[in-house]
Amino acid sequence: GWRTRVQFAVDPAGRVGFRRHRSHEIEPVDACLIAHPLVESLGIEGQRWPGVTGIKVAVSIGSGEALVETVEVAGSPADPSDEYLVESAAGRTWRVSGTGFWQIHPAAADTLVGCVLELLAPRPGERALDLYSGVGLFAGALAERLGPDGRVIAIESDRRAVRDARHNLADLPAVRVLPGRVERAIPR
Description:
By secondary structure, the chain is of the alpha+beta class. About 20% of the residues lie in helices and about 30% in strands. It contains five helices and ten strands; from the N terminus they run E-E-E-H-E-E-E-E-H-E-H-E-H-E-H. It has helices at about 35-40, 110-120, 135-145, 160-170, 180-185; strands spanning about 5-10, 15-20, 25-30, 50-60, 65-70, 85-90, 90-95, 125-130, 150-155, 175-180. Helix 3 links the parallel strand 8 and strand 9. Helix 2 (about 110-120) crosses helix 3 (about 135-145). The longest helix is centred in the middle third of the chain and has 13 residues, at about 110-120.
């Protein structure tokens, strides 16, 4: 009952399930035992989903809001909406578009930020890279520690996450968010 983001597979009959280990075979399920109650309250598993091959679900524990995105038979996602969830972590709020990446355990974001800050022990004026930065969680926490004389470069390839990171970190002038693949951006 803790997972806030779940990706279901849908079989040709429209039944929701998960792929068997090392297989394309889908095992239909009536419930997902590790899904947060907010995910389960949507009743995804109890419905038929004709013409859909996958369903992505994301919920925000703080607001109780949920987003559902489907993947159509042709293999492409349905038109992603401009909807987003608001998450809270590291003393800030974070916009996460659609079912984009956010830690799946409600306590993970704060726990991981705490570990990163403890292990790196960032000091004012230092520089940091946040690779695969997503919506900017670590970049934001680092920038606050590094202060106005510090610098954080965040690199992310997902365009919705880049847009969210720029929104989320707009009040931190020490952060620069670069769109692109890490392996291409690093040489620059």
